[in-house]
Write the structure tokens for this entry.
Amino acid sequence: MQLLILILIFKFIIIFNYFPNYVQCWIYEYFPTLGNRVENRVACDEPGMGVARAMRWKYPRGNLKVDQIRRMIDDLTPNDVIWRPFDSHRQVIPFDDICLYSGYLRWCGNVVPYLPERCLRQFGYIQCIPRPPPNFNTFNVDIEWNDCHSSANQIIRDAHLTSYPFEVTDTYMEWYYKVSHPRLIRPTEVQHVLVDVPTHRVLSDERPSNSRLAVIVKELEGCARDWGAVPEDPVFKRFFRALDYARGGL
Amino acid sequence: MQERGDKKELRVVSHGKKLESRVPPQLPPLIQGWLDGSGLSALQRTSLKMVDANLLSAFVERWHPETSSFHMPFGEMTITLYDVACLLHLPIRGDFYDQPLGITKNRAASLAHLLLGVTYDEAIAETRRTRRGCYRQEWLYDLFVRHCKTGMFDYASRAYMLLLVGCTIFSNKSVTLVDAKYLSLFEDLSNCGRYCWGAASLVTLYEHLGNGSMMSCKQLGGYATLLQVFIF
């Protein structure tokens, strides 16, 4: 009987976790293909209005199950990501080099790593293999934070601007799958590392994952926008055929 | 990607709706001035009403606290300081703030007596009610309204600002409580702008994500359950 009650109690245990809602805004900004969202008609990017970008979104409740979303995330390609969503907001909040400070952040006794060199594409730089995180025991948060420019400048000095949004160095993806990723998955999942790791998953995708084609698509789409070209216009027939070929990833 | 096995879906709480009803259309000029100086005023309008728990849950599983980043199929991504600056218009330069992690009921009560203009007895009654170093959001809001009426704007302002950060960047899973340790942040009202609120929100967020990614893992689930559960 006691066992039964215990089982009943455990059935009703709900794990609560709190996340500030702006995480969801962050997801919406970077991943236009995920989730169910409606845009507010607020001029967030108008300088002087003082409207924060989190005001941009309205939230109809999502109707997808976690499993479905997991699969969607697994199938994401770098082309599905808006790598620098806040570029249009720079007139309101100018970019500050302090965002490239690398090390640890501290607040009320909590210390967390902050390592922008692992996410360089979000700053418009080519992603290369990052250095290992700094040693927590020898890292002096206050000194490094006050001197944030030296770590930021070091990143800027070593980085190269991307020529297309998701550019990585030749060795990065291999490193990411073979070194970083298996090592950083949770210990309980280690046995799965030996499962065939999809090293070239990105390339086998049907979208123009070939970087050069992606650039061509982007340029052609830009032209079409600039000229106001529509596919129905016979003058642009061959132009749009070329765009279709590029999009098809031939 | 790797098999992730069975994961518990996370229950996600948000209290955007409640905060919205508590933001007055116009603040007294003195409070508005302090709020603008602190760099927190944009928080009043950025709280969102609902969250898509499934979407967040699927992302939390990909969070790695060792690198503070989401591990996506094509590389790592994270929520950067610039992202917080744009999303919430918080200052990203400034000081860190140090306060011991926990705060006792008595300390919370004497802080409230000193900074929120309540009698010590009233404050101790409140912390006895919450049973830890926390105040209820409702209580803070009532204090704000009460002090506004009597013209005690510094007390009103502290109550309001604590409520504001407690509902947004420093919110926790208790849903209705605000940690008292943040009250001393607003001791010197004209000097609140010196804190790096952007980094503060990131630290709290990374901590939440780290806990969430631990809890979403089945093996650790039982252990985490012991620590952080609500039984109904």
User: Anything to note?
Assistant: The first strand of chain A starts at residue 13 and ends at 14. The beta strands of chain A are 13-14, 16-18, 38-39, 57-58, 103-107, 110-114.
